[in-house]
Amino acid sequence: MQNRFVFVFISLLTCVSCSPGTVSHSPENDLGLAWVRHAAEYTAITMQTYQEAGRDLSGFLDDKSWSALPEQENAENLPPAVILDVDETVVANAEFQLSFERPITHRKLYDDYSNTDPSPVPGVIEFITAARHAGVAVYFVTNRPCERIDDDPDPCPQKRATVRQILKLGIETDAAHVLLSNEQDWDRAKSGRRTMIAATHRVIMLFGDDLGDFVPCVRIRLYGPCTEPATRASRENLVGEYSGYWGEGWYILPGPMHGSWTKFP
After folding, report:
1. Do 239 and 211 touch, CB atoms closer than 8 A?
2. Spatial contact of 135 and 172, defined as CB atoms under 8 Å apart
């Protein structure tokens, strides 16, 4: 028994030192995946996030001068909206990811999404229900990419699959409220899609599990308005620059399995 414990402990330490691109999806050696699948703390954090947002909702609705987008101005007379990321924010993917070995290509990942039964992130359905009851439009902005698949005539079959997944959760939506990367002229910077929504709505809340769900220029690759690759230091500076928004219109959920953070060893 003692030797077995030592072996498991060494395996876990080895996993921690691995790059995210080389870790397999086994609960025994992928601590992020195991935590999301098994830890009661994960459920507590996501429920806490959405319950806190639900308590904040009426205040943001009443304050017509408020926007969760620092650049949005003169939105007092626009109808309110919230923007949510999809993966690990609305759809919980731990069980789905367990069936794959890394690295996972975007095409493989999102082709197969259309054939899965999704699970909701704890707390999200209750929050969206409350927001819609209060008259708030709900948009889903995801970096699942639009890519043609074989002979499918649809230029963005991943959008069709994403809408279907959200509907399976019991959350009503349609193609107009689900925005993917590479759809139209959008890249992986979500700022362009947020700006489009802000043209017709006062955006009162943002939700996501990645820094890029809130601000641009968080990646090594250049997207949107970015002129220099992000670094660990620049990402930390962005968190500090917008410190007044965290928990105050911006609600971030845990994302230990994947995300832009994995590119910074």
Report:
1. yes
2. no
Query: How would you classify residue 150: left for phi > 0, otherwise alpha for psi between -120 and 50, otherwise beta?
Result: left
pLDDT digits (tens, 9 = 90+) for 31-57: 888 999 999 999 999 999 999 999 999
Is 94 within 8 Å of 33 (Cβ atoms)?
yes
Strands 178-181 and 91-92: unpaired
Give SS3 for 107.
helix
CA dist., res. 188 & res. 206, Å (int): 17
Identify residue 185 by its one-letter amino acid code: D
Three-class SS of residue 3?
Answer: helix
The type of residue at 37 is R
- The CATH number of 40-263, from 3.10.310.10, 3.40.50.1000, 3.40.50.1010, 3.90.470.20, is 3.40.50.1000
- Please name the residue that has the structure tokens 């949107």: 224
Supply the pTM of this predicted model.
0.85
For strands 250-252 and 178-181, give the pairing.
unpaired
